[in-house]
Amino acid sequence: MFFLLITLIGTGTIYMLYHILFSPGESLKEKGSQRVREEELKSFKEQVDSLNSELDATKQKLQEKEEALTNSASGLENLKHQMQDLTVDKNRHEAKAAELFDKISKIESEKTQLSNKLKFLEGELRAYEEKSQNKGQQLQADSDKLKLREEQVESQAAKLQEEKDLLSKKEEVMHKKIEESQEQLNKVTQQNQQQINDLEKKVREYEEKLADLTKKNEELTQQQNLGQEQKQAEPDVELSRENEALSRKIEDLNRQIEVLKGQLQSKEVASEKKKPAAGSQLNERQRETLEYLKENERITRGEYADKFSVSSPTASRDLKELQDKGLIKPCGPLGPGRFFILVQKPNE
Fold it and tell me: What range defines the domain where residue 344 resides?
């Protein structure tokens, strides 16, 4: 289009120059004004030159625009390729959008179901809250009753603890008294045994004397009989007196022996009565204690209580029963340092 415009402008300019310079029917008047026309032509040439300059500038711009158009065409191809890629992406995104719409529809459906379930659960929750409130009021009432009962139980427990402590103290006092009584009983038993041993010794001495006097009496009797057969004279007064004296001594010794035997029997009976009873059968703790003492030489009341996790009064009672049965015996002074050992039997 630009080239056509330039062609038309060039053709019109040449025609006008020809018509002005070589027109054949030109009059003299017109030739007189040729100078003016030449000036006009000169002016027109200048305009033509200006137009040519503008034309060159226009051509230059046109070339630039052609180059820009060429670049635009290349860019347009790139844009087409990008458009195709965008179309592919659009289709892919549309497919994903369709999938998302399906998922959204499913989610909406699930949302509706969950909403219905939520309403149902809210109804059940309100019912449960009402029940819980009623149950809470009942529990509060029960809690108040339990607190009152706990206070009563604590009060009773405190009283029982006081009674237990009092009984424990009494039991300890009784145990000490029992141990002291046992010590006294052991001392009395030892004294009685010593007296019995002394009486038995005296009995043996009197029996020996009695045997000697009986022998002498028999010898005197034989001598007296022999003397009567030989002499048949007056009786020997001295021999009769000695015989009578021996007879009286024998009678005295017999009476003393009977008295000593009676005293010995009474002492034995009294000693047997003072011995403690054997008691009932052993419990598990007592049996384990006997086995323990077979491997270990001694055990204290505190060790017994710690070993079997029992109170001191219980430990004292168990050890006292073993002592009463003659299975163990106490050693050492009264108090925490007192310990017990196994009683060794004669056959052991």
Answer: 278-348
pLDDT at 318 over 90: yes
Domain tally, the chain: 1
The answer as to whether 307 is a domain residue is yes
The b/e string for 214-236 (b: 16+ C-beta within 10 A; e otherwise) is: eeebeebeeebeeeeeeeeeeeb
Residue 327's CATH number: 1.10.10.10
Residue pLDDT, tens place only, 200-237: 777 677 777 777 777 777 787 777 677 665 554 444 56
Is residue 330 situated within a structural domain? yes
Name the CA dihedral angle for 134, 138, 139, 142, rounded to a multiple of 10 degrees: 180
What's this model's pTM, rounded to 2 decimal places? 0.29
Beta-sheet strand order (sheet of 339-342): 299-300, 339-342, 328-331
pLDDT tens sequence across 99-151: 888 888 888 888 888 889 888 998 888 888 888 888 888 888 888 888 888 88
Residue 114 lies in a domain: no
What is the spatial distance between Cα 224 and Cα 236, in angstroms, rounded to a whole number? 8
Task: Using pLDDT thresholds of 50, 70 and 90, give the confidence band for residue 322.
Answer: very high
CA dist 21 and 10 (Å) reads 17
Measured distance CA(246)–CA(142) in Å, rounded: 101
Angle in degrees, 0-180, between the axes of helices 284-295 and 312-324, rounded to the nearest 10: 70
- Site of tokens 């809210």: 122
Evaluate whether residue 220 is within a structural domain. no
Provide the pLDDT confidence category of residue 26 given band limits of 50, 70 and 90.
Answer: very low
- DSSP run (H or E) holding 330: strand 328-331
